[in-house]
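Lab notebook, page 48
Experiment: co-folding of the full assembly
Goal: obtain a model of how the components sit together before planning crosslinking
Operator: M.T.
Materials (sequences as entered):
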Amino acid sequence: EIVLTQSPATLSLSPGERATLSCRASQSVNSDLAWYQQKPGQAPRLLIYDASKRATGIPARFSGSGSGTDFTLTISSLEPDDFAVYYCQQRSNWPPYTFGQGTKLEIK
Amino acid sequence: EVQLVQSGAEVKKPGESLRISCQTSGYTFTNHWISWVRQMPGKGLEWMGRIDPTDSYTNYSPSFQGHVTISVDKSIRTAYLQWNTLNASDTAMYYCATGLDWFDPWGQGTLVTVSS
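Observation: model returned without errors.
Model output:
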């Protein structure tokens, strides 16, 4: 089973700042990685798939990069609505599909 | 618009059985697999398994194989997650989601509480 490790666990930033979230895989997942956003009391929402492709309706301030074992989700300029928990997920080696443990992005 | 609407919250006792549902609309039901994902209180996401609505072929995570059953009823565009014997550690929010490898969109979640 591929283990995804996200860092940091919590990221405290202010609106307008740039956010950089990391996801590291225990073995190569090529570009088979997605990012999801989850707000309190809501279901997760797909943001990025295939490591760098934005899902339908996702603003351009969200971008993904990386391949192999190291991946990054970048939010170029934080808006108040972006403060949430973010999860990465791999599809390269399954079953099972696995998720990272999440990064909580909180307002500083 | 693609929509997944899940059944309501459940409170059960250990040892009881349960089936929760995920009703879909807005797309061709047999075109997309449906997965179930568990989120225990205050924790992260765990993929449980998926089903191909075309022929009911299923894949399960080893962590959930044998403890839950995923099924569909094509006539009413609905997927199900079933337990024959619940235990307290099954207390969690359960989400359905469409997609073969990426999950989009998701249902609103069904909270299952198992307590004596």
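Interpretation: The mean pLDDT of chain B is 96.
Next step: discuss with group before ordering constructs.
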